[in-house]
Amino acid sequence: MLYQEKKATFTITIVKIALIISGIIAGFAISRIVIVPFRMPDNSMEPNVHKGDTLIILKHLSPEPGDIVIFDSPAEPGRVLIKRVISTEGDAVEIRDKAVYINNKKFDFRWKTRSVDKRIFPMIFTHRDAMPALKTGRNQYFVLSDNLDQGFDSRTLGLIRKASIIGKMIYKY
Question: What superfamily in CATH does domain 60-168 come from?
Answer without folding.
Answer: Umud Fragment, subunit A (2.10.109.10)
